[in-house]
Structure to design on (594 residues):
């Protein structure tokens, strides 16, 4: 049977149509697959982003949220097409606003531009404002159709917590967790920018634990790390009590910034306090481990500009270390520093004596039982130029190094005997004055002869003079110290062993030491009210001294409680700021008027 040509044509057309439909369907499927693959790719790309991304419809239904956002907002599993609930709040310009209100406010005037709000905050869910998250916030909007009547909002949130964490870590010392040099630099820049406004002084103290690599080689890595941690905690505590800043710059190096000071003495005083603490605070297997630190100090504005202040502190530290262990050096303005230059020291000291820049101050020492002032310690002061008062801790080590301490010692003795004579003439009550002496002085030829001659020429009773030698100095050259001290005693003057408790004096050494008085070091009583171990030690030392026929003085008494406690231990004499600071002679003599 033959088909009509119309039928053939129809069949052919149908076939072509079918093929076309099949091809189109195939193509559509392919396109769909390609689109799905693309969507999948974008999804993945958004999911690995650290930023949270959210697409909201104009009625706040969630059209898309990447995994970071799902986590950040703790979205339920079936979150798509649901409204955002609870509504997060965003803080812009100090005001918390619900996110939906905030976004719609932005686009009220139909602006299509992207808005960005760096450094804002977000509070999500029930956690409230307390747990707000620092963020950078971006929002944009796009039309959902050709009519421009429907919109959706694309939101990106950059969580800044990780960055903060990272910057925190990089700004702290790994071992001690104290802020590091990087942080110091940042803080200092801020402080410096304000400093001109307030017309104040600022001090930087660089502390270096002496001899640390040797210590490390002796006690091992772990123990030495422990020392650093221990020291860091101590500095941290001290910083809290005194409101200053402390940094662990590197290894055995720490930086302190005193943001407001009146005089350089405050920085020196703090350094001494830290040095003394370091000298006593660490024990290994119950045995006290003696550490020392060198300190370099720079002061704004005296030591330089804010730009070079830290460098100057390093320079000062370097200077301090040149003088040996445990020294403090202040970086002084050019002309003063010049005088500290070793080559010029000779002239400086002669000038100073000639220009009357040295002055002997007297600190009262009281009898414990009735608190009557019965003695004084002569403490030298260098008043340089108009305002500069240089504490003895700074210039004495230098003078010791150059040998001019001998000259200074002679000066102090002659000032004291002259003063004694004046007091005698003006009928003040007789007062025994203690004079500090360095090992160098006592080793020097003619030392005893000079004392004898001074006493004789001013006709001063030798009972009115006492010499103090530190435990450390006495032990450095035992033979000479012993011989000379005995010669001195023959003149009738008394001897005190100073800073007792800071060295390693043995009982047998102490027994034969020709001292009349033991002066217990201030560091041993600094924390005596809180520390019962210190109480036991000091009590035992007083008993030991008494059993050897010596009298006891405790220095560094700063309050009534300390005085009472030491009185209860039977200490004979007390010295400290509580009874009086070192005073110029004319002020001191008010205390000994008859
Ligand atoms: P030092 O002999 O141990 O003198 C005691 C130091 O402690 C003095 O510091 C004194 O002012 C201070 N001091 C006394 N009571 C208290 C207190 O309650 N609290 C506090 N925080 N401090 C107190 P200064 O006058 O700065 O003398 C420091 C060191 O300089 C002296 O220590 C001494 O070793 C040395 N020195 C002072 N004058 C002379 C001197 O004429 N010749 C020699 N060779 N050395 C001297
Ligand atoms: Ca002394
Ligand atoms: Ca002392």
């Amino acid at each position: 049977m033959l088909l009509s040509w119309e039928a053939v044509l129809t069949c052919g057309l149908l076939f072509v149509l079918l093929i076309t439909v099949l091809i189109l369907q195939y193509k559509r499927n392919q396109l769909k697959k390609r689109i799905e693959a693309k969507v999948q790719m974008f999804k993945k790309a958004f999911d690995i982003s650290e930023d949270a991304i959210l697409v909201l419809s104009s009625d706040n239904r969630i059209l898309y949220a990447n995994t970071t956002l799902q986590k950040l907002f703790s979205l339920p599993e079936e979150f798509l097409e649901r409204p955002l609930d609870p509504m997060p709040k965003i803080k812009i310009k100090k005001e918390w606003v619900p996110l939906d209100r905030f976004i719609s406010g932005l686009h009220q005037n139909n602006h299509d531009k992207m808005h960005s709000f760096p450094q804002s905050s977000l509070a999500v869910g029930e956690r409230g404002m307390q747990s707000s998250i620092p963020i950078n916030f971006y929002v944009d909007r796009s039309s959902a159709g050709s009519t421009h009547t429907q919109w959706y909002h694309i939101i990106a949130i950059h969580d800044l917590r990780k960055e903060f964490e990272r910057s925190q870590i990089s700004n702290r010392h790994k071992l001690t967790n104290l802020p590091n040099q990087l942080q110091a630099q940042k803080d200092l820049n801020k402080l410096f920018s304000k400093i001109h406004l307030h017309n104040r002084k600022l001090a930087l103290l660089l502390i270096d634990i002496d001899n640390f690599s040797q210590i490390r080689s002796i006690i091992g890595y772990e123990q030495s790390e422990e020392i650093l941690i221990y020291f860091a905690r101590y500095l941290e505590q001290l910083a809290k009590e005194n409101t200053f800043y402390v940094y662990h710059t590197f290894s055995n190096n720490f930086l302190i910034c005193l943001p407001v000071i009146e005089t350089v003495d405050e920085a020196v005083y703090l350094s001494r306090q830290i040095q003394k603490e370091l000298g006593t605070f660490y024990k290994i297997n119950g045995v006290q481990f003696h550490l020392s630190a060198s300190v370099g100090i720079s002061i704004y504005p005296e030591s330089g500009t804010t730009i070079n202040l830290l460098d100057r502190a390093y320079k000062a530290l370097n200077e301090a270390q040149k003088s040996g262990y445990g020294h403090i050096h202040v970086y002084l303005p050019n002309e003063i520093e010049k005088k500290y230059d070793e080559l010029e020291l000779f002239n400086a000291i002669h000038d100073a004596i000639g220009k009357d820049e040295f002055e002997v101050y007297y600190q009262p020492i009281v009898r414990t039982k009735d608190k009557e002032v019965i003695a004084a310690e002569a403490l030298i002061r260098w008043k340089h130029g108009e305002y500069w008062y240089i504490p003895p801790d700074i210039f004495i080590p230098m003078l010791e190094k150059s040998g001019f301490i001998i000259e200074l010692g002679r000066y102090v003795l002659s000032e004291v005997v002259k003063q004694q004579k004046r007091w005698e003439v003006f009928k003040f009550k007789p007062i025994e004055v203690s004079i500090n002496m360095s090992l160098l002085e006592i080793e020097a030829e003619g030392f005893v002869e000079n004392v004898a001659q001074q006493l004789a020429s001013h006709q001063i009773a030798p009972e009115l003079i006492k010499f103090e030698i530190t435990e450390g100095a006495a032990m450095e050259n035992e033979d000479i110290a012993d011989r000379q001290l005995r010669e001195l005693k023959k003149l009738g003057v008394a001897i005190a062993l100073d800073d007792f408790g800071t060295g390693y004096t043995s009982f047998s050494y102490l027994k034969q030491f020709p001292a009349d008085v033991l002066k217990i070091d201030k560091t041993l009583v600094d924390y005596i009210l809180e520390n019962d171990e210190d109480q036991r030690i000091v009590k035992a030392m007083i008993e030991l001294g008494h059993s050897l026929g010596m009298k006891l003085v405790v220095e560094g008494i700063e309050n009534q409680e300390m005085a009472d406690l030491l009185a209860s231990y039977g200490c004979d004499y007390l010295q400290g700021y509580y009874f009086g600071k070192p005073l110029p002679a004319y002020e001191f003599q008010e205390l000994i008027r008859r």
Observations:
- The first strand starts at residue 52 and ends at 57.
- DSSP finds 21 helices and 24 strands in the chain.
- The CA atoms of residues 472 and 503 lie 6 Å apart.
- The pocket of calcium ion (ligand 2) is lined by residues 377, 436, 468, 498 (CB under 6 Å).
